[in-house]
Amino acid sequence: MKENSISSEEEKRLTEAREKSPYVLTLEKNGFDYPIPDLIGASRFIMVDRDTVGSKELSFMYSKFDGKTSIHHKHKHDDCEEVMYIASGRGVGGVGDHESIQQAGDVIFVPRGAVHWFYNPFDEPLEMWTVYSKPSLRAAGYSLESSGYSNVGAQVESRQFDR
Fold it and tell me: What CATH number is associated with residue 118?
C-alpha cells in the first residue's frame, strides 16, 4: 500500500494553487457579514451564494452568537429548507412547536416555511454553519414574523456589492 505523503516541493505547489483557486474559500478572506434584520448580537458571514460565487442552488454561511446577548427572532423561509450544524457552544432554538437546547454536534433541519428562531442565554459563544436550499436569502423568501418583514429586499441584499 502506498504511503499518503507529499514532498515539500509538492506541498509548496499545492499551497500556492490553493491561494489561486476560486473554489477554496476562507471565512477571513471571503466571508461577507450580511446585515439581517432582527439578528441581534450575532454575526453571519455568507460564504457561498449566488452573489459571492455564482451558486445556482444553495447558500452556505457561518454564524457566531455571543453569550447572553444574541438572538435571531422568529422567522421563516417560505421557499427554502435550511440545515444548521452547531460547531461549538450551545443555545436555545426552535422549529415550529419544538424548542430545545441545541449544542455542539447537533444538526437542525428546518422544513420549508417552518417558523424557527435561536438565542444564546449561556456564557460561552455558539458557532454554527448553515446551508439554505436556495442561492440567496431573497430567493428563499426570507421573512421575519416578529417584525412584519415579508421579504428581505434588494436594499439589504445590494449592500453586498458595496465593498
Answer: 2.60.120.10
Number of CB atoms found within 10 A of residue 56's CB: 7
pTM: 0.81
Angle ∠(104,106,111) on CA atoms, nearest 5: 140
- Cβ proximity of 96 and 75 under 8 Å: no
Tell me whether strands 42-48 and 107-110 are parallel, antiparallel or unpaired: unpaired
Q: With b meaning 16 or more CB within 10 Å and e meaning fewer, what string describes 74-109?
A: ebbbeebbbebebeebbbbbbbeeeeeebeeebebe
Q: How confident is the model at residue 17 (pLDDT cuts 50, 70, 90)?
A: very high
Which residue range forms the structural domain that includes residue 141?
Answer: 32-156
Which amino acid is located at 2 in the chain?
A: K
